[in-house]
Amino acid sequence: MTEKTTRPGPRELFGDVAPALAGYSEDVLFGQAWKSPELSPRDRSLVTVAQEVFRSA
């Protein structure tokens, strides 16, 4: 059986240093942008990849 691990979100990573950026990352990128019917699955994937690259930097 494999154990599923979760990565910390923006608030855990840098919320104490940049709370506005953490809020924007969660609310706009993963909230509004991901749920937007105007975005194609390809565009949603690009948003996700861009956020993951940002988080890894």
Describe the structure.
- With 57 residues, this protein is mainly alpha-helical.
- It has 3 helices and no strands.
- The protein has helices spanning 10-14, 19-35, 41-56.
- The radius of gyration is 13 Å and the shape is globular.
How are the SSEs ordered, and which strands pair?
Blueprint: H1 10-14, H2 19-35, H3 41-56
Features:
57 residues; mainly alpha; 3 helices
What's a concise summary of this model?
With 57 residues, the protein is mainly α. The chain contains 3 helices and no strands.
Radius of gyration based on Cα positions: 13 Å
Strand content: under 5%
Indicate the mean pLDDT: 77
User: In this structure, how is the largest beta sheet organized?
Assistant: none
User: How many β-strand stretches?
Assistant: 0
Measure the end-to-end span: 31 Å
- Tell me the helix content: 55-70%
* Annotation field: number of helices: 3
Strand and helix order: HHH
Shape category: globular
Structural class: mainly alpha
Q: Can you tell me the residue ranges where pLDDT is under 50 for at least 5 consecutive residues?
A: none
